[in-house]
Amino acid sequence: MAKIVNVELMDIEAFITGDKCGRSKSLDISVPSDLELIDLSKDLHQVFDKSLNKASEFMNSIFINAFVKNEKKDNHIFTVLKCCNDEFNYSARRIEDIAIYLDDKYRCA
Question: Which terminus of the chain, N or C, has fewer Cβ atoms within 10 Å?
Fold first, then answer.
């Protein structure tokens, strides 16, 4: 049995403005029912989280908000994936890379 998890990926501008500006992507993924959101978060951190070399690199960090759909209990997680690249607009590529990874691993619902 699977459960549906809604994952919102946001760059810093979308996060600060409540998704009024910046880049964001929302997707529903189908995950095994025994997968906890913390395990999903750990997986993303293992693959995508980087150490910061300088403060300006934080601007390309990705903010992730995820919750299990149609579940009565509060099952929600928020995390930040840091980035060691301060190239302009690099976060847009990272959002797409993360979305592709999630789609390949869990298949979008």
Answer: N
Q: Is 31 exposed, middle or buried (0-12, 13-18, 19+ CB in 10 A)?
A: buried
Instruction: Return the structure tokens found at 106.
Output: 């869990």
The answer to whether 79 and 41 are in contact (CB under 8 A) is yes
The encoded tokens of residue 63 equal 């903010």
Give per-residue pLDDT as tens, 20-42. Answer: 999 999 999 999 988 889 999 99
CA distance 35 to 33: 6
Decide: helix, strand or coil at residue 22: coil
Length in residues, the chain: 109
Asked whether the predicted pLDDT for residue 19 surpasses 70, the reply is yes
Cα separation, 17 vs 52, in Å, equals: 23
